Amino acid sequence: xGLLTAFVLTGGPAGAAVLAPVDIGNPVxxxxxxxxxxxxxxxxxxxxxxxxxxxxxxxxxxSNYNVALNTPGTFTAPGDDQPTALLVGGGVDYAGSSxxxxxxxxxxxxxxxxxxxxxxxxxEDQNGASVDTQVVADGAGYNSTPRVQxxxxxxxxxxxxxxxxxxxxxxxxxxxxxxxxxxCAATVILLDGNGVPLPDQxxxxxxxxxxxxxxxxxxxxxxxxxxQLNNIDELTFQDEPTADTPxxxxxxxxxxxxxxxxxxxxxxxxxxxxxxxxxxxxxDATDITIEEGDTVEGTIYAPRAKLxxxxxxxxxxxxxxxxxxxxxxxxxxxxxxxxxxxxxxFPFDADLRCDSDTPTPVTGSVSVDKVDAETDAPLAGAEFxxxxxTNDEAGLQTDGTNPDTEVGDPCTTGxxxxxxxxxPTGTYYWQETAAPTGYDLPDPAVFGPLTLTEDxxxxxxxxxxxxxxxxxxxxQGSVSVDKVDADTDAPLAGAEFxxxxxTNDQAGLQTDGTNPDTQVGDPCTTGxxxxxxxxxPTGTYYWQETAAPNGYDLPNPAVFGPLTLTEDxxxxxxxxxxxxxxxxxxxxxSLHLKKADAKSGQALAGAEFELWKESxxxxxxxxxxxxxxxxxxxxxxxxxGACDFDPLAYGTYYLRxxxxxxxxxxxxxxxxxxxxxxxxxxxxxxxxxxxxxxEGYGDGYGNP
Length: 704
Prior knowledge:
Layout: E1 21-25, E2 36-38, E3 42-44, E4 48-49, E5 53-55, E6 59-61, E7 65-67, E8 84-88, E9 102-105, E10 110-113, E11 119-124, E12 130-137, E13 147-150, H1 156-159, H2 167-182, E14 190-191, E15 208-212, E16 220-225, H3 226-230, E17 232-237, E18 247-252, E19 259-264, E20 266-268, E21 278-281, E22 287-293, E23 296-297, E24 299-309, E25 315-316, E26 319-326, E27 342-344, E28 352-355, E29 363-372, E30 383-388, E31 405-412, E32 418-424, E33 426-434, E34 446-452, E35 461-467, E36 476-485, E37 496-501, E38 518-525, E39 531-537, E40 539-547, E41 559-565, E42 574-580, E43 588-597, E44 608-613, E45 630-636, E46 642-649, E47 651-659, E48 664-665, E49 671-677, E50 683-692
Parallel strand pairs: 2-5, 2-26, 3-6, 3-26, 4-7, 4-27, 5-8, 7-9, 8-10, 9-13, 15-17, 16-18, 17-20, 18-21, 19-22, 21-24, 22-24, 23-25, 24-26, 25-27, 29-35, 36-42, 43-50
Antiparallel strand pairs: 1-28, 11-12, 12-13, 14-15, 29-32, 30-31, 30-33, 33-34, 36-39, 37-38, 37-40, 40-41, 43-46, 44-45, 44-47, 47-49, 48-50
């Protein structure tokens, strides 16, 4: 029978506190038949264990220790031919062991070492001969010490095996069982040496001889403190424990903060034959030292404690401890290991059942139902923590120096939207710590108080917690423009666009003024595919072309749209094509000016001219005023008397001389023209002549 629920409600009216049965079953269940089981490390100094040993941590040993003297046990690992007599979850501590240490595994039992990183497993001696398996320090030879020595040749791979027992989980169960057994109400009455009940069952004088009677057919429970136990010199059994009349001895060490130096009493009337039906439960002990005394009959059950045995008397029963030192490696005779006696193999073999000594509190359900705020549909995936009101302050306090008390583990609602805990009467709060996906966490996220009383415990108390959906971000889609050549539809790179969103409720796009529409994102320049695109929420948009590709005219108007993005078309997006026309080639021509002496025709350098283009629609040249013609260029004649205006767009032009060469006078009318450049006359050559002034005179401005 395994561990069952330790506290259960029994029959009776609501609110009635009753004793609850405690069903433990066999407390050592899960040991796989190992006579010694430790969660952590074990040291075996002296002398022997008659049965198999399982060590959750590392193994340390003295100069000569035997394991499985009488039996290798019953646990055979998958694939093995022999039972495992020594199981080590960790590794062998060679440095901590005796330099001459030999731990022998007898009865052809196998060994299992979880961590062999510091070990060598040898099945051949130095001469290559096949031998019984030894486990030695890494790099050490056969028969080196310290070593683990078998009496059978076990395959190397079989030795190097881990994970056969989950010591952490097993000892968690053992501690739960110890705590459950510790609640058992006492049934055994303490008698004096004459068989008369002690007048005060809570007082045992030092050196007492105590007798006990057992009730047949039930678990007998003896409750003692550590001090009371040490005050018993001799404990006499008037009745022998059996499989259906086991004895549970609960030893409370809280008075000594979990530390007990145990001077074991003489146990009269029992021996190894009764040992399988006696269990010493040290539920709260953390450090037990067996200092001296007589043989311990029965199982020592101390899953939280380090047990140190200094007594040469034997232990006849299982040992279940967090850590074990069966004889320290020094301090004994001749400076060697302390003689801790023998561990005889008498596995515990009874199922325990008792009544709790504590009335079971009235309990009931405290629950929360998580629903959608609009539809009341249950919501899965909400995370809650239950709290109990314990600090006498109104409302829930989850932190600070005096918070209320968390109850149980966090709970996540399932498809029914419910979290529930069965708890004693009191006042409770549900705290929502995470909302379901797609929902907001309420503010505040505390629901309660819910007060569970003896009157409503059968029905329980509940509260509904509503959650509102998290607002969804607006639907988005692509708004794009494709820039193409108006004639060929080829995509055009280099066009610059700005996206605008319609926001002012005025038809068309407004980009300035007191209430313009809204720019969206940064300007975009089309690439080789000719596209600009933005992912935006639903709405109405315009693309404004701000610069045309090189060689193309900017459209007029340069606005494309409106483009309306809706929830229906958001997946596909909306797009517009913007066509651009190439900038027409402007025909051009040239005007070539030659400056010459009026008499000799000699080329004149240094004459300065302005070229004006007819642009105001009035006959003749106007160089100033409100609407002059357009200055098209300036030039100074070179040594060949020439200067060129090239290229020139088609049109009508005038030359105006603004300075003459030195020694020459400005003509009376410095303006010549008009000169018409068109498809007929693309290139015009004009010769302008200047007269000399008097010898040595002339300043170049028409003055002699």
